[in-house]
Protein 1
Amino acid sequence: MNENNKFVDLKKGKNIKGGLIAAIVIGIILLIIVFSSAVAIVPAGSTGVITTFGKVSETAYTEGFHLKIPFVQSMEIISNKIQVYETDASAVSRDLQTVNSKIAVNFRVRSDASASIYKNIGHDYQQVILMPAVQESMKAISAQYTAEELITKRNQVGQEIKEQLEAKVSDYGIQIEKFNIVNFDFSAEFNSAIEQKQVAEQNLLKTETEQKEQLVIADADAQKKVKAATAEANAIKLKADAQAEANKVISESLNDTLIRYQMLEKWDGSVPKVASSANPLISMDLNDLAE
């Protein structure tokens, strides 16, 4: 009996020890569960919204380590990082052309509005707020421009859509960082008309360029001829001036004695048979010649 009692006591001791270890393990697990339930970590670029039995807190918690009541409170994470929302938008231009566009919006939720957005909208704020605001803004601004202006004034159109979109969503706590019109798409007929117009404008530009080149060449040729004519006229004037100067020198150097001497040098000794005042020999004094 003693041996049996010892065996029973040993078995009871092992059971107690095993139960104690199991209780400790369970206690540790419960402590871990309670601790993890009491701790909330908000990641970088986000804010945390505490709910108590479903009731949303009025303030949001910044990034980092926070404590909450276990099993009573829970924390919802709202991202405040820049997000991209892409969608297709359809509108009608001022000249009644259908415009299909691809839109990309960079936005973020303001940290001070995280609690309000979660309380009133939840996590689906892109579809609830952004989508209708983008569509409405696109339609409103596109209707102010012709289809051609939507292409040529694309940056201006995008800026106006962004401003109107900001006015629609800022009260909800959504901040628009950037608005991009990825592309415009029109009907095949309109695209063909635009292409034909571009070809006509290019041909006109080519013709105008060729005409300008011809005018430049003609102007250069005219200037060349003017320079040549001016040079020739200057040469003629210089020649005439030189001849006049020579004539002046010759005229100033002539006198009666020199003239008579040159006449005698050329006289053959015969007396003219016809006497007239036109004959210079008549005016000569033969006595002077004899001397």
Protein 2
Amino acid sequence: MSGDLTKEEINRKLLHILAVVLPVGIFYGPVCGVERIWVCMLALGLTCFSIFVESARLRHASFGKWFLRCFGLLLRKEEKRQVTGGTYLMLGAAICSIISLHSEAAAVSAFLGLTFFILGDAAAALIGKAIGRVKICGKTLEGSIGCFLLCVILGVFIFPILPGFLDDWGGELSLVQVLSLSFAVSLLELVPIKILGVEINDNLYVPAVTSAVAFLIR
């Protein structure tokens, strides 16, 4: 059903987009004199803080009420009684930051994969809420197409002109590589993964998987 895009969802995704500072830090931190290990430590620290806050609000009613008064408008209905997508995203980004420590190739792959996911996921949610009609696994085909197209635009027009990206990528970012990674992000974002009947939040595993895909197709 289209027309479900609200101000709250827009604000939520704008906040989500701010997380792009993490992949930027992973890739450009060393250029600015910040060793990658410190970016990794920051991501892990923010993740631990986020988990602490989540635990406190879910276990202590008074803190939970205060949290909802301050941030309730940024939460989806189901997130008011469970861990938020933002915390899963922080954990996913932390995993990518750990992967980036392996090598420059791993770092550039984490930068590409995590950025594609953060921006593509935001596009999928906003487009799906605004014009989505065809439902697939609780999400929309239109949103998935929006995710795919945005990732293609980023891969074709933006990433190739970023300072140092093609050098660490190892040459041209080909159209086949862009299309492959864009399709992977869109498919992973669209189709949920369940383990023992429990659906895993896509913010947790998609960043790591897309980074791995980027590394493999280099």
Protein 3
Amino acid sequence: MGSGSESRGAGLTDAEFEEWGTGLLERIETQLFEVLRADSPFITEMARHLPTAGGKRFRPMLLVGAAGLGFDLTGQVDQEAALKAALVVELTHVASLYHDDVMDEAEWRRGAPSANKRWQNSTAILIGDFIFARSSAVGASLGSDYVSFQAHTFARLVAGQIEELVGPAAGADPVDHHLRVVADKTASLIAASARFGAMAAGAAPDQIEALTRFGERLGTVFQLSDDLLDITADATGKAPGVDLREGVPTLAPLLVLKSARPQDADLIEWLSAPVPASDLPQVLALLRAHPAIDQVRADLRSRTADALAELTTLPDGPAKRSLAKLCDVAITRSS
């Protein structure tokens, strides 16, 4: 799967770093489909269904960026470890999507029919399990430090999904509950991506912990920004209001529900249940004009600054700049 460590010496230019990163990401993409090959053509087709439909590959991009710090730290990167670890995080992410679609009774994913819609729920669940197994097999070849953190991350993913299904306890703050769900369901795996990249870079323990915190903060920004995009998406080509129609709680509506302003009474009533399609344009218009939107954007800027602060102890260079750029990508999607 890899060629071991790659040494290029310190001081890569941005163009050289981008060329190296693009090449590694292309290898990761190829290996992703190879790992999903099964003895049964039918299982292979199902396992490759979602990856074939596309996706941002945000987690491998983050991992490769963090791994590239090795060129500035020691002059080399454990490229084989970076490749395998990227497969672990992307396979874990893809597997979780198969399971999410079953629980959400989704019909579409990445512009294609969801696996549960194309086949059936039980098949989609089993394919998710198959992909998790392949992810674990790749992770086992990396050593106990990787396996241990993968298991920790997987437990958080499951806990976050359960918490989302159960909802906040009586008397609990729904906003705090939602942020914990976001942290466990999304940020945990993005944190693992940054951590695994730092490990492949040969980073010092304190730098590994800083990059893990960076990934956690970035992951929260990534998800909250995506949720905001569901409300503000008119100019992006993404159909807005999916979460509102399905009654999925996100930060801006939850902030509105805490409002004591008399003029918010009608909007609060709408947001207290799934919004009918016929009411969606009016609800979106009211929500977009509400101060909660600016409140979420301010929160995103603050969280992004906290993430960037975790990079201050890292050496300057193209890898660090690529990580900062991912923050820009995450936050500008909904601005």
